Amino acid sequence: MTKPPNKLLEGPILRSLLTLAVPIVLTNVLQSAYQIIDAFWVGRLGGAAVAAVSVSFPVMFLMFAVGAGLSIAGSTLTAQYVGARNDKMVSHVAGQTLLMVISAAIVLGLIGYAVTPSLLRLMNVAPDVYAGALGFMRVSFIGLAFNFAFFVFQGITRSIGKPSVPVFIVLATVFLNFAINPLMIFGWGPIPGHGVMGAALTTLITQALASIVGVFLLQRGLHGVHVRAHDFIPDFRHIKRAFFLGLPASLDMSARAVALMMMTFLVSSFGTLGLAAYGVGGNILQAVAIIPGIGLSIAVAALAGQNIGAGNIKRAEQIGRLGAWLGFFALTGFGIVVFLLASPIVAFFVPNDAAVISEGAHFLRINALSWGFYGAQFALIGVFRAAGSMMISMMLTVVSQWVLQFPLAYVLSKHTTLGVEGVYWSLPIATVLTFAVTVIVFVRGSWRRKKLLTEDERLTNKVTDEILSDESPR
Question: Keyword Lipid biosynthesis on this protein (predicted)?
């Protein structure tokens, strides 16, 4: 029989992009709900508890960056093999990526658990924050393997053009998270409360359930992907290929995470108020701008990757341009809403601390109107990753975080009268400048010359499709 046509390779680009982007963004936003729910309940414990989560976030973001970066390699290869119509390699890539990423998670989790106390001392965490941050981070390190496994599952589903599958899994676990969180944090009856650590325990439980369901679906067979036992036998040639393809993406995200950690160090030097405000405002920035922007980037990468795998570079470029406009207008709209409602939004998370509400709202008003540039930049980066040009993405992150944002934050906060407000202003300035650099790189087009699949692979799959077509009933 003839294979059905791949709708993502033809027809209106906007329809195809929205088909992928809406469920991917929805899944990412739902996943960020874990963080929002944690912030909601932990905020009831006071400013020190909020600061404990704020201190922990950049460290865990660094760990997630490694896992997400490595899973991007599997997603990129999967998308291009789907475009080239090589079903056998799609399943093989899925199994090998799971093996590689989960192994990395176990190693990182053990190391992280051991060094957490030293890391918190290095960060000069205040005594009233230390205990909560220690428990939160250690439990989060234990759960890394489950987080990483679900990253791979998400990457595979979006690469095969079925991104709605994780939505239902995440939606169920988010409801479960909201129900269990207050029990684990505050306790009830015979159930003891664990404070800040309780939020991390709840996330561990729900992420474990999500990853187990995801891996089960892959083993049972999911829309052409059927990961069997032999796909988990180490194929070091493929693992090496995927590792070196994913390494720049991991370094890209890790550079962003380390920069976030350094920004947290810088903000903490201005006291608990600044750290708590930056933490709450940063959570809202992540949930409303960064997470949807990354979701759009992932959708662009999946759609462009399939088209690049099919040899349609021009369509991939059109996908990037349309994605950039879509991201700019969508996140600008979100930013306007947050700008107008900054104080009520912060008060929702920290209802009993007027100082944190005022400072957090000030952070949001400085940043919110620049969020459209995040969306446009992330969409263009999705095309770079789809083409396998991970080094371009990594260098843009280095420029954004280390050449622009952190130096600006340090100079404006420490060498002007702005103080902690200088840190706030560094974000929109760096965002706009990085977007301009990204556009220049995209227009120059060096990413168009990157090839992951060989011509032999493309030719083999083309001939296979022709044979299938010739043998189909007429």
Answer: no
